[in-house]
Write a structure and sequence with these properties.
With about 170 residues, the protein is α+β, with helices and mostly antiparallel strands. The protein has five helices and seven strands, in the order ββαβββββαααα. The chain binds zinc ion.
């Protein structure tokens, strides 16, 4: 049950211009391996962030509802990373660490690659990731709709380009 497993290839341990681009790269990487990366915390020194931690969306302890939570419902999210809110927590140890470099770029390294839960088949279909993907195709999708293409054909066209979505995403876009 509590077996630790590594999902897919190691996220690229490279340098990124900022935290957001590193997070996006890790999310893109993770979802095809069956997990979702969220930003967990940043460490600051003299008001300046110098380290950030990315975790699996199943990190953290399962909340015991009989005990009053220290921070009820308010969940602070950083950099628009509103992911994994409704996921069952397994205290997953997966952790990536992002260090600010002297030139203000950010270098990604892996602290713990293994997860303590099975991969999620839905990771690739996380609504917020789908919406983000689809926004990149907004113009072409709108054009297709206007020229009378069926939603089904639009979806299969997008899928061929590596963008996964469901009909509702298309309607939401319009
Ligand atoms: Zn995990």
């Amino acid at each position: 049950m509590n077996q630790h497993t590594v999902f897919g290839p190691t996220p690229p341990q490279t340098t990124y211009p900022n935290i957001t681009s590193a997070l996006t790269a890790c999310q893109d990487h993770a979802r095809y391996s069956g997990y979702t990366v969220v930003i967990r915390s940043t460490e600051r020194r003299e008001g300046k962030a110098f380290r950030a931690y990315f975790m699996c969306d199943r990190s953290g302890k399962y909340r015991n509802r009989t005990k009053p939570s220290v921070k009820p419902r308010k969940k602070r999210t950083l950099e628009g990373a509103q992911l994994g809110t409704a996921t069952c927590k397994t205290d997953c140890p997966f952790q990536l660490c992002l260090d600010r470099q002297d030139d203000d770029s950010w270098h990604l390294r892996v602290n713990q690659l293994a997860h303590n839960h099975p991969p999620s088949l839905n990771a690739a279909a996380h609504p917020s990731l789908r919406a983000r993907d689809l926004r990149a195709h907004r113009v072409e999708v709108t054009r297709s709709i206007n020229s009378g293409d069926s939603v089904r054909s639009i979806i299969s066209k997008l899928r061929a380009q590596g963008t996964r979505c469901i009909p509702r995403d298309i309607y939401n876009l319009g």
